[in-house]
Amino acid sequence: MEVITETRVPLYIFANSSSIEPDCLRQAKDIANLEPAFHHVALMPDAHVGYGMPIGGILALKGHICPNAVGVDIGCGMVFTPTNLTAREIAKKDLEKLVQQIMRDIPTGFNIHKKPKTAPPFLQNPKLPSVLEKEIDRALKSLGTLGGGNHFIDIQKDQEGKIALMIHSGSRHFGLSIAKYYHQKAREICQKKNIDLPTPDLAYLESDSTLGQEYIRAMNLAMQYAKENRRQLMEATKKAVKEIFPQAKFGQELNAHHNYAALETHFGEKVWVHRKGAIRAGEKDPVIVPGSMTTHSYVGVGLGNPDSFNSCAHGAGRKLGRREAKRRYRVEEILKDIEEQGVILGKIKKGDIAEESRFSYKNIEEVIENQKDLAKMEIQLTPLASIIG
């Protein structure tokens, strides 16, 4: 761990600082200079540039909450389920059939369901501002949809050859609408109070204020929505698996958010811990750390390290921006690489495939090594098939 002390609170970096891009380091210093920043800021080994705050950053604020320190995909996270199937009993043609079945059953990219799903209890009386209430119909049509970008459904095998399912998705447009609405409100309040911010992207709210409490309720609602979305995605995936492999049985699901804020006690104080692209890794907490499309993913347990506010990395972390990835790599060479790595790809539109290739992400093995004091990895997973938006 490296420590930078030139900021208002120290910056703890769980990687070699030379591996952190300059703009990401600047953003980390910005949040460490915020007036309500508490004790220190932690930067995970997968850190890269985000809106206002780095993805892979952990920020504790005393008495305040910052929408952009949570992120726009509120509640985005992972769900993981082991199965009784083994890789040796799955023929490639059956795996290809499974990928096609999942793609028929689950909308990906910008696609949503034509009809709204039944509202889960938490969405039946959400008590949101009217501008956000209008998002409910779209939210119900988006339940059980994957989204685009780096959201995925993976069929993987562990070290013993056992098949597992891993899904990455979030709160879809619902969380984005909440994030944008309250960030704008926070900006207006900070301007009105003449609060000196490193950047307007880091506008925050008093957590006990009317707007602060409103945002917290809306954020928690989006987190519930994201978890329900992942549940429905996993149920649809399990159903597809059973159709192709009737003998399949499923183990206990693990679920973890990696974009959220929570009121926790650290260093003797109650503070709002913002995890933006970071997983809670308290002692024995389950942690899910995916790699990139053709590389290993990991499942393990947290070690409860106070220096990271009981957190760890949420994945490999981007090495190249989306535009740069598309500029450097041709679609054909990425598709060839995926095939050579032995991974079956499920993707409707392949024009942006370079953005999610292994070349666009950091080395997951280095990320895992750099956070060995934060989490202990117990299961190493190799991708067999990947469905992305």
Automatic annotation (TrEMBL):
Any one GO molecular function term: RNA ligase (GTP) activity
Cofactor: Mn(2+)
Active site: 314
GO BP of this protein: DNA repair; RNA processing; RNA repair
EC supergroup of this enzyme: ligase
Alphabetized UniProt keyword annotations: GTP-binding, Ligase, Manganese, Metal-binding, Nucleotide-binding, RNA repair
Catalytic activity: a 3'-end 3'-phospho-ribonucleotide-RNA + a 5'-end dephospho-ribonucleoside-RNA + GTP = a ribonucleotidyl-ribonucleotide-RNA + GMP + diphosphate
Binding-site list for Mn(2+) 2: 168, 258
Pfam families with a match to the protein in the record: RtcB (PF01139)
EC number: 6.5.1.8
Manner of cofactor binding, per the entry note: Binds 2 manganese ions per subunit.
UniProt-annotated binding residues for GMP: 258-259, 290-293, 297, 314-317
Keyword Metal-binding: yes
Cited InterPro entries: RtcB, RtcB-like, RtcB-like_sf
Protein residues bound to Mn(2+) 1: 73, 151
Protein name: 3'-phosphate/5'-hydroxy nucleic acid ligase
